[in-house]
Specification:
The complex is a heterodimer of chains A (161) and B (522). In chain A, 42% of the residues lie in helices and 23% in strands. Chain A is built from six helices and seven strands. The longest helix of chain A has 21 residues, at 58-78. Chain B has a 24-stranded antiparallel beta barrel. A two-stranded antiparallel ribbon of chain B has the order 6-7. In chain B, strands 8-9 form a two-stranded antiparallel sheet. Chain B is globular. The chains are: A alpha/beta (161), B mainly beta (522). The interface between A and B is large, with 63 and 95 residues. Chain B: Residues 1-21 form the signal peptide. Chain B: It comes from Tenuifilum thalassicum. Chain B: This is TonB-dependent receptor.
Chain lengths: 161, 522
């Protein structure tokens, strides 16, 4: 009963509070093995797409490949930057560096080996992307279907105004 | 119990504090909800027996609250009853995760449930993998310290989660990491990172065998090195004698060695991993069979995206294994002049694991456990049409891995295509064929998926086992996605077998019926 009451309070609370989420204070690794705080990666940039992926996730690859093809254009037009977070654990995190180089992805790729950032942002499944405007989350999207990068670009453009 | 109360008090206290302070715009609330439900039916064709309840349901609620440097949260889980393939020990519902945490640039302090990994996880990794029913989070406290920018020190203490409760064993651990390059140089051209860990478990022993230790210590050292396009990641773990159920009460020490090297350039990357493990199972309870993992030693093989390549997944042979994996990724430069090569990407993967030879540390025996050789070629013809071709050859020593006496050898071919039909409407087609070489049936798979970007997807697939009589594993369904929420409904048959994520597997019996899932992030 007590647990139910807590859940109830928690749910009620979530309805009461409305505020935009900030970037969590979480350490991830860059492809050189250096620790970086995700706040420092995102904070200075006006528009950032943070996208979660894994080496074994087919739709994630499609999404990243389609963004890679459009990235130059997107960046020129809106100044948006893309940061791709690999949630691969030590089974595959060692080869992410090669995978990124081999795919010639033009954006920043970081490792979230024990899902600390994924957990902090309450992400359940990949692919999952978030759009940050001046450090605040303005859009979230789960899954990828071919062509949905077009919708994403529309949302990015809206947020440049 | 005390920890639990403390965490709850801090959590509720932080809410109350927030109310009092009247700073509604400062704190944030976030969370997620996920539920997966199955209605089972008995289906004699695939030997699927519906459980007594004919129903299974796994649900997860997570709430986090953050105010400045403080945060707190809970996780509620309900298995009413657990889905087929999950442990029946999960049955029930509970707020099983709860934490309160303080963090600033110097220090992070957490009381309650937390997740942690030391190095590559060879010595310690607590994590959550819902798809496998794994959650070995630690309940206790953890401290992370950054005394200087180039160094991190972590200390943990607690008991590990076991199903919807906590296990008997107590864990203690310390990990330190030093980035020598950033310590010595302002703009280092070479990157050198050292690390070391100690993890100790304690479990009371009331039996009569005075050889059984109550405390088992493990140590690990690691080095990461990067110079130009070359990088090295090495770690060695050693563990004191740790007699337990899983190693048949072996009195030997255990160890694991990982050596990973990469060379990268623009459009090209190669990674070679070598690993040797011996008696490396490390659990917080000596009677553990399928829970209480302390360390994480995943199978270093390719995690295949295609179903037929996953019929015989390999899992690490913790008692003894030696082998490695090579991965090469290449893509033709975007601005190439060669028309046919435009948009081509190639991935080559080879992995092979043997039983080690008894007394020579780095030699292999005649027993091959597993080998996987595959090539995948992707070609993007235009924005509207993409295709990928894969060929995979697998050797799986069923006799040595799961018992019995057979070696399974297969060849698999996969063709996958994406075609844009109209604005925002795409068709995905996947055709696979498994050609048996030894001890397997011929299998075929066809899958069609139509997506209406960005919200709807409908799919139909059939996987056929060409046994004496063809057995069809059909599946169809749809999903609807809006922003961070997703609903999926499907109907069909699922083959019995191992479901593996990250090199850990759970056995899922054959099941048939209706699946319904919802997930949302807020």
């Amino acid at each position: 009963m007590r647990k139910l009451a807590i859940l109830f309070v928690a749910t009620f609370w979530s309805l009461l509070v409305y505020s935009q989420e900030d970037i969590p204070n979480v350490i991830v690794k860059d492809l050189q093995g250096k620790k970086v705080n995700i706040q420092n990666v995102i904070a200075e940039k006006p528009l950032v797409v943070l996208t979660f992926w894994a080496s074994w996730c087919k739709p994630c690859h499609q999404e990243l490949n389609s963004i890679a093809d459009l990235y130059e254009e997107w960046n020129e037009e809106t100044g948006v930057e893309v940061v791709a977070i690999s949630i691969d654990d030590s089974r595959a995190s060692g080869k992410v560096k090669s995978l990124v180089a081999g795919n010639d992805w033009p954006f920043i790729v970081l490792l979230d080996e024990n899902a600390d950032l994924k957990r902090a942002l309450n992400i359940t499944n990949v692919p999952f992307l978030l759009l940050f405007k001046n450090g605040k989350i303005v859009h979230k999207h789960v899954g990828y279907t071919p062509g949905s990068e077009m919708e994403l670009f529309e949302i990015i453009k809206k947020n440049t105004k | 119990m005390i920890l639990k109360r403390l965490a709850l008090i801090v959590f509720i206290g932080s809410l109350a504090f927030k109310l009092d302070a009247q700073i509604f715009d400062k704190g944030t609330f976030s969370g997620s909800f996920e539920t997966n439900n199955n209605l089972y039916r008995t289906d004699s064709v695939i030997n699927a027996n519906a459980p007594d309840d004919k129903f299974g349901s796994n649900t997860y609620f997570k709430f986090d609250y953050k105010l400045g440097k403080f945060s707190a949260g809970i996780q509620y889980e309900a298995y009413m009853p657990p889905l087929v393939g999950y442990s029946q020990f999960l049955k029930g519902n509970k707020i099983i995760g709860r934490y309160a945490s303080y963090e600033d640039s110097l220090l992070t302090f957490t009381v309650g449930t937390f997740y942690e990994q030391f190095g590559n996880g060879l010595i310690l990794r607590s994590y959550e993998e819902r798809a496998l029913g794994i959650n070995n989070s630690i309940d206790g406290f953890s401290v992370k310290l950054h005394p200087i920018k180039s160094a991190t020190i972590k200390a943990i203490w607690g008991k590990q989660r076991k199903y919807l409760d906590y296990g008997e064993g107590t864990l203690r651990g310390i990990d330190a990491e030093l980035n020598l390059s950033t310590l010595l140089w302002k703009e280092p051209s070479v990157n050198i990172i050292f690390g070391g860990s100690w993890v100790s478990k304690y479990q009371e022993y009331t039996g009569t065998n005075n050889q059984i230790p109550t405390t088992v210590d493990a140590y690990a050292a690691r080095l990461m090195l990067e110079y130009g396009s070359y990088s090295l990641n090495a770690e060695y773990m050693t563990k004191d004698k740790d007699p337990m159920q899983l190693n048949l009460f072996s009195m030997d020490k255990g160890n694991a060695l990982l050596l990973q090297q990469s060379i990268v350039g623009r459009g090209l990357g190669a990674t070679l991993s070598l690993r040797r493990v011996e008696n490396a199972d490390f659990r917080s309870e000596r009677q553990a069979i399928e829970a209480s993992f302390i360390n994480y030693v995943p199978a270093l093989t390719k995690q295949h995206k295609y179903a037929l390549a996953n019929l015989h997944p390999y899992s690490t042979q913790m008692m003894g294994e030696i082998g490695g994996q090579l991965d090469i990724f290449y893509s033709v430069p975007r601005k190439t002049n060669i028309t046919w090569a435009k948009g081509v990407k190639i991935n080559l993967n080879v992995s092979s694991y043997w039983k080690p030879k008894g007394n020579e540390y780095l030699s292999i025996s005649d027993t091959l456990f597993f080998r996987d050789v595959g090539i995948e070629i992707e070609k993007k013809f235009s924005y509207k049409f993409k295709t990928a071709l894969s060929f995979i050859n697998q050797y799986y020593n069923k006799g040595a891995i799961t018992g019995g006496a057979s070696e399974v050898i297969t060849n698999i071919a996969v063709l996958e295509s994406y075609l844009k039909l109209r604005k925002n409407i795409w068709l995905k087609l996947e055709l696979s064929e498994l050609f048996p070489v030894q001890n397997e049936n011929n299998w075929s798979l066809a899958l069609a998926e139509v997506s209406f970007a960005p919200k709807w997807t409908i799919f139909a697939s059939d996987m056929i086992d060409h046994a004496e009589q063809n057995i069809h594993y059909y599946n169809f369904g749809f999903s609807y996605t809006k922003n961070a929420s997703r609903i999926g409904i499907s109907w069909g048959r699922n083959r019995e077998g191992l479901q593996c994520i990250g090199g850990l597997c759970r056995f899922v019996p054959a099941y048939s019926g209706f699946t319904f899932s919802i997930s949302t992030v807020f």
